[in-house]
Design brief:
The complex is a heterodimer of chains A (434) and B (372). Chain A is an alpha/beta fold and 434 residues long. Chain A is 45% helix and 21% strand. In chain A, α5 (225-237) links the parallel β10 (217-221) and β11. In chain A, α1 (2-21) crosses α3 (163-174), α8 packs parallel to α11 and α10 crosses α11. Chain B is α+β, with helices and mostly antiparallel strands. The chains are: A alpha/beta (434), B alpha+beta (372). The interface between A and B is large, with 68 and 80 residues.
């Protein structure tokens, strides 16, 4: 601490000498500026956040203290020590107001809450900052975390003489022992060996990272411990990273800590069954886009189809074949990956995000519904019902309802597909394959 | 003499290599040279003195007034980063390799950000930046139209900005509740700027709150709110079929946008209520309602409203649900949120009124969070 203070004082003195050496008084001289900011660009994608880019650069930060909102941002130092905290609102939410008749309703509201949006966090640089976290304060869900150290290191590699970078480097410099040349060389030699070893490990790790894809995080939820363990083992053998939960409640707790790539959810659990658990998953802003594969031992009936109709990605009837399980998982994860790639292209091409999102949702829904209709052994019928609430339909009409809706959705999906493909064609991008 | 073991031999060779490499490094380091940085104005090509030069992040001094040069001694071999700043100009950084490049010619462009605070910016104050729109709306064609008004007339834009600043910020005490005192010297807790680059205008009618070229966001990183000001609508306003709009939209700290028409000062105050003070609408309609604690102006329950009223010595009996009766121009409306502020309330009305007592309390809270 004393050394750090001495170091800062020396630095200040040096800067003072530099300023004075120019022979101009400080009042006339522009003052050097070392204000730095941390800029994080996040992508908000239908409730999920991910880091798009991050950098430390010179600049001034906005006033974080004046903001309030449901999301809590934190910048943490060593050991999780909180260096900064602030709150923000969900990105893209728009409050629009139209002036109305002066004598009547004077303001008319309109709103926008985009499913996709960029979000920018600009915060003052903090010495020793290591991690950024964004949490939803309504339910404590950790939305995103980011390791800040690489960005700081990149900055300090370019600006090693910046006062803050000097202070960061200072402990290393002051730690040089005041001993004989032999000891100095021995220390340097040891350091070189360690650095070489470190670099070698880093290189190997980097290469390893490139060669081996990150393991997909699959959460298996079933109250039958034998079933859970068996599926987990099978998935492990296939290179997935399974986690397990023995109840709906445990599943909800686990996804608050870490969002999985996929959930395998058993329907027949108690006290909270699979449908109730699914309802909670789909309510959470951060969890509602997690793909869910339902596992059920029951025969499919129209009543069950009514429940399946709420936002699942696929389902499997127990007992299922091993290859069926792998195929269903691969299909969902592959689709997710394909969607991410296509979304990046769509953004590049300037396709309307809402349209793209609508097509993605419709496409998923059409696939599931067609599978349901196939299982129920029902031909695609002529529309007979429209604009009805599914909850009010009896079982007889459920099938017709799904039929009609599927046809409507197919028409709309085709229209959107054509619009998006036309933009893709104009940019020379490959057309959508789904 | 005992013969060396294999391990000792390898250690010896490594030590020798290390010493050699250190010797070479010391030799290279001990042979630094000088670098000359020449700074010019990108537009006029004139040399610029008083530009601040930083080498690898360390401040080295300023360029000479007469030549725009600065010579930096003791520059070591390798890749370096030079950073050039000058008040009123955009910062430039450049990587270079020494001694391959021993003279750097750097052009810097005048900045487009103009400060409107005579005494300079206050630290930790609320930063409000105004940005001109190249678009407005035609009530004749019922469509967005391009307008050159602000792009060809900076003085006109500046005058409109000053009107907004006076009515919305400097005279805040005239539009807030007298029952709630604003922090003393509140006007000094704002820093005002406008950004003027006719080649990169904003479009107030792209998206709800408009859009601004990315170059602005790269340059101005500290704005607490950026206001896209657009010229008044063309043609005649006619009821709701052609009436000006305002909008506030937030993309994170530093990217908080609002748009408003220059001729509608009450609407500007309403949008400022959203964008700067995070006040919630108190009219009944299609908007976002939430209890905007601390110091809310809208509550999620009658009890919360009454409790807040009692805690702040206000009459709890004045708490009422946000609703309106059916009229010729609209259907009835009711929300599960409660308000206290009397009408005409700026957060409910775009033509007249004041920020009520609860809203003023929140405004005071936000201003007190800022320095100045």
């Amino acid at each position: 601490m004393i050394m750090k203070t001495v170091w800062i004082c020396c630095l200040a003195l040096c800067l003072g000498v530099l300023v004075c050496s120019c022979g101009v008084s400080a009042a006339e001289q522009p003052v050097p500026e070392f204000d730095k900011i941390l800029q994080i660009k996040l992508t908000y994608d239908d409730g999920r956040y991910s880091v798009s880019s991050m950098e430390v650069r010179y600049g001034k930060a906005p006033n974080l203290k004046i903001r309030t909102g449901d999301l809590a941002g934190k910048i943490l130092g060593p050991g999780g020590n909180e260096l900064q905290s602030f709150s923000v609102q969900e990105p893209g939410r728009a409050y629009g107001d139209i002036l109305g008749d002066p004598g009547g309703d004077s303001l008319i509201g309109y709103t926008e809450q985009p499913a996709y949006s960029d979000m920018f966090i600009t915060a003052p640089y903090e010495q020793d900052m290591e991690q950024f976290t964004l949490t939803d304060m309504r339910d404590g869900t950790l939305l995103v975390t980011a390791d800040l150290r690489p960005s700081v290191n990149v900055f300090c590699a370019d600006y090693a003489g910046d006062p803050d970078c000097l202070v960061r480097a200072a402990p290393v410099k002051t730690a040089t022992p005041d001993t004989s040349l032999y000891l100095v060389l021995a220390t340097l030699f040891s350091a070189s060996v360690f650095i070489a070893a470190g670099l070698a490990i880093l290189t190997i790790r980097r290469r390893t990272k490139v060669l081996v894809p990150e393991k997909q995080d699959v959460l298996i939820v079933d109250d039958d411990p034998d079933m859970v363990e068996a599926i987990a083992e099978l998935l492990r053998m296939e290179g997935y990273a399974p986690r397990t939960a023995s109840s709906g409640r445990e599943c909800l707790d686990l996804i608050k800590k870490q969002i999985p790539d996929l959930i395998l959810l058993d329907v027949g659990m108690s006290p909270m069954d699979g449908w109730q658990t699914l309802g909670q998953i789909k309510k959470g802003p951060a969890s509602r886009t997690i793909p869910v594969l339902m596992l059920t031992g029951r025969q499919l009936t129209p009543e069950l189809a009514k429940q399946y109709h709420i936002c699942i990605d696929d389902y499997l009837m127990k007992p299922f074949q091993l290859d069926e399980l792998y195929a269903a998982i691969n299909s969902i994860l592959e689709r997710k990956k394909q969607l991410e790639v296509t979304l990046a292209l769509a953004r590049k091409a300037g396709v309307d995000k809402d349209k793209f999102c609508e097509l993605a949702k419709l496409s998923r829904r059409i696939t599931v519904d067609k599978k349901l209709l196939g299982i129920l052994n029902v031909p695609m019928a002529v529309p007979v019902v429209a604009d009805l609430d599914l909850d009010t339909l009896d079982d007889m009409l459920v099938v017709d309802y799904i039929n009609v809706k599927t046809r409507d959705r197919e028409r709309r999906a085709e229209q959107l597909r054509q619009e998006i493909n036309s933009v893709f064609r104009s940019k020379g991008f490959p057309e959508l394959g789904w | 003499m005992t013969p060396l073991s294999g391990h000792e031999k390898i250690s010896g060779i490594l030590l020798l290599l290390l010493i050699l490499s250190l010797t070479w490094t010391v030799s290279a380091l001990s042979d630094p040279g000088s670098l000359t940085v020449v700074v010019n104005d990108a537009r006029t090509k004139e040399v610029l003195g008083n530009a601040l030069i930083y080498l690898d992040g360390a401040y080295k001094g300023t360029t000479s007034l007469s030549s725009g040069n600065m010579t930096l001694p003791d520059v070591t071999q390798g890749t370096h980063t030079v950073r050039v700043t000058r008040p009123g100009f955009k910062e430039v950084t450049k990587k270079f390799s020494y001694p391959d490049e021993q003279t750097l010619n750097i052009e810097i462009s005048q900045g487009s950000l103009v400060s409107l605070n005579g005494n300079g910016a206050s630290a930790d104050a609320i930063n409000v930046v105004f940005y001109p729109s190249s678009t407005s709306y035609s009530c004749t064609d019922h469509a967005k139209i391009a307008t050159p008004l602000y792009l060809t007339n900076e003085t006109r834009f500046r005058e409109d900005v000053m009107k907004v600043i006076r009515s919305t910020y400097l005279d805040l005490d005239k539009v807030t509740s007298p029952s709630e005192a604003l922090p003393s010297g509140y006007a000094s807790r704002f820093n005002f700027y406008y950004y003027y680059d006719p080649a990169a205008p904003a479009d107030a009618f792209s998206g709800c709150a408009g859009t601004i070229p990315e170059s602005y966001w790269n340059e101005v990183t500290f704005a607490d709110v950026t206001v896209i000001l657009y010229p008044k609508y063309y043609g005649i306003y006619s009821n709701t079929s052609c009436q000006p709009t305002g909008c506030s939209q937030n993309f994170g700290p530093g990217r908080n946008l609002m748009k408003a028409p220059a001729d509608q000062l009450t609407l500007i105050q309403h949008e400022t209520g959203h964008a700067v003070f995070e006040l919630v609408d108190t009219y009944c309609g299609n908007t976002y309602y939430y209890q905007n604690d601390p110091n809310a102006n809208v509550w999620a329950s009658l009890e919360s409203c009454q409790s807040s009223a009692r805690a702040n010595q206000r009459d709890p009996g004045q708490c009422r649900q946000i609703q309106k009766k059916a009229s010729l121009s609209s259907a009835s409306c009711i929300q599960n949120y409660w308000q206290w502020d009397p009408m005409p309330d700026i957060m409910a009305n775009g033509y007249r009124g004041k920020y009520g007592e609860a809203a003023t309390q929140r405004i005071s809270h936000v201003i007190s969070q800022a320095g100045g």
